[in-house]
Amino acid sequence: MIAISIIIKSIDKSRSIRIMEDMTAADPQPVNSPASAGSISEAMSKYLAMVKLSRSRPTMLAYKTGLQVFSAVLLEEGMQPDTTPIGELTEDLISPLAGYLKAYSPATEQLYLQSVKGFYEYVDAERLADINQSRVHILIRQRARRPGVRFPQFPSDEIERLLDHVEGMDTMTRSPGDDAPEAERLRATRDRAFLLTLADTGLRVHEACNLRRGDINWNERYAVVVGKGDKQAVVRFTSRAIDAIRDYLARRAALDGNSGRQLSSLPVFARHDKGAGKRIKPMTPTTGRNIVNERVLQFLGQEMVGKITPHSFRHYFVTSVLRGTGNLRLAQELARHSNIQVTQRYTHLSNDELDKAYYDVFENRSSKSGR
């Protein structure tokens, strides 16, 4: 309680009058004080909304899953995220979270810890709780496992078999030659162009789906794309990939002409299903995965479905560059890996000299000892 004293003295200074005023109203609370900031769940929702604006959708979904796991840990610790004020969030919750995540792979553990670490940084920056960021970082570093190096696994020989089949477009239709229905031939030319593009450019599936006709320099055979991390990059095309795309777009010319849109704004790879009708709508990554599964089933059989994915073609691309050049830095640049350690995972798949040296030493020794 605050009191203000006002003293008024008479002219003759014979007496004083003291007036007391009580100020019983409390100070207004800061806008982002813990008491006014809402619950932990509300803070998580606001944080994910921010992530959605600044990161890709897959990243946002991964962070959302990480925070869902964190919410499960909070419940085990006796904290209801929907009702517990965000001001009660402390760094002490990192330790039980790290223990809970030991049931996951090291890579998943790292991803979910990263999402929770970002949430703590958001809470601290918004002054929703008193967070010691240094302690958060130390606890994560001390308790998190480091994911080991995992070599990319993909069936290189089967991908090459698939591409051999795909290059002959007539083999992709049920009725060879001009007897195939036009809609079926249109899908076949699209699938052929799509698969050859994935294999020869190293594009991620969502990057290929986002390509617009105006992105491609047809004479120089390259495209400017916005890839992972919102980074702009130049992606080069082989002549067979460009030719396949040209064949597809030529067969699609009537649809493009009737779209009422500028050709440069139209997607390179479009949907051709009942939902799209005669409209030119861009493919989605789901459509891309379905194309791969359909053509793998057609040419390689059911046993290979799921073993070759759109991302398998990116592995194939990086390995092909390394085998053809032996230049790790070049492979990194063409694959657009921000960290060369990512590219190094492929070197064991392409080091033919090591293979030859190994067999020369050990196989020759075995053959000599067997004489």
Across the major sheet, the strand order is 3-4-5
Instruction: Determine Rg (CA atoms, Å).
Output: 31 Å
Helix run count: 16
The CATH architecture classification of the largest domain is Orthogonal Bundle
- Whole-number count of domains: 2
Outline the biggest β-sheet: 3 strands, antiparallel
Question: Structural class from helices and strands?
Answer: mainly alpha
N- to C-terminal distance: 103 Å
CATH class of the largest domain: Mainly Alpha
Topology order in helix (H) and strand (E) letters = EEHHHHHHHHEEEHHHHHHHH
- Percentage of residues in helical conformation: 40-55%
Low-confidence stretches at least 5 residues in length (pLDDT < 50)?
Answer: 1-31
Outline type: globular
